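Let's see one such:

===
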Amino acid sequence: VQLQASGGGLVQPGGSLRLSCAASGRDFSINRMGWYRQVLGGQRGLVAMITSSGDTNYGESVKDHFTISRDNARNTVDLQMNSLKAEDMGVYSCYADANVGTWPGPIRMEYWGKGTQVTVSS
């Protein structure tokens, strides 16, 4: 399974960005899909996660201005980021937890996409 992310960039404080991530490959089904963020010199932390049934989980600092959504048929996940602040900056990485393979049975695997930089600055 490969994850391809897009949509990062530079935005002014208060602005919006939308990140998208698409999963591709063979014989897989996505369980959870979402985004993590890593700041310079810091650890990677959860931004938002969504299950195949649409249940969501957000990091405490973003829950009031980020929205995660998912298209199960297209194996894509989007992160709408509004009212961006300096503390939202970082490298955002797409994550997927998937069942992969068919015989003798699917194996549960984790995948990471290449990170995309989000910079909030005037």
